[in-house]
What does this fold into?
Amino acid sequence: MTWNFLEIEAQIKAEAQAIGTAQDLETFRLKYLGKKGLVTAVFASLGQAAPADKAAIGKGANDLKKLVDSLMTERAGWINSVKKIDERVDISLPGTAPALGHAHLLTQTLQEITSIFERMGFVSAETPEIETEFNNFTGLNIPIDHPSRDAFDTFYLDTEDPSSRGRRLLLRSHTSPGQVRIMKAHRPPLAVIVPGRVYRPDAVDASHSFMFHQVEGLLVDEKVSFCELKGLLTEFCRRFFGPKVIMRFRPHFFPFTEPSAEVDINAEILGIQRKKWLEILGCGMVNPRVFEAAGYPKGQYKGLAFGMGVERMAMLKYGINDIRLFYENDARFLSQF
Ligand code: PHE
It folds into this structure.
């Protein structure tokens, strides 16, 4: 009996490719290595083979057996790995939604405030948190002996101000130095907001933090009135808190604005019972001395400015009663917003 080893080999390889289950694997094994299997038959034929053919038939039979063995190992591995995937992924189970993160409530609030003003035509600009005494105080007409310059009210750095010998740099205590920077660098008309962090050495409690956020606003042109300031901030509050908001402008004093006011929001309307009126921002008409310090020609421009506390706004809008919650990064708090 003669065997066409090449043909048998090709047939084995082709059939092995089609093995997809443990059952297929067993059928394949029986077909070639079983008692009545083809490879078994090749071995059996050695007995009657002519002595001259024995070596070739013996080698052929051994090669076929090795081929069948190695293909079976390979297919068995494949079947196992598929089975594992099937066990791991039960496609009939309801899916697990991936845990998605989201922006921190303060970031969301900052973005909301920024976008309201951007839609009104303001551009947003960030200015440095490390400032000079000039930008934080002098350029804003804050007198040299003003208590807010005191180390108890401002964080001073050990680093000397390279632009003013003997004066130290500081962490800005409000975003208003942004006004000075913008006016030193640009000519009116200007409509800019400056969002960012500010620092004050306050003892931390439910309503104070040594670091918090403000959004500064500055609008300068040849004709700007207090009426526009009121209109602008009223519209802003309606968009931020909703149309029912009740606010009041209360006369106040800031060295860098004249006249000046503070804006309070009626907390009862927002459903916060603690106190009737809560202050959210300071504002006013830019003091001509601030224009002067920025190098603008005398009497040519008018401007309005405001600065609001972002934490305050978020606390009022979302009924949060402790400022520390913003900084503790407790997921149980953050995930609510
Ligand atoms: N800088 C003031 C503050 O921090 C707020 C303010 C800004 C007031 C601009 C008037 C104009 O309290």
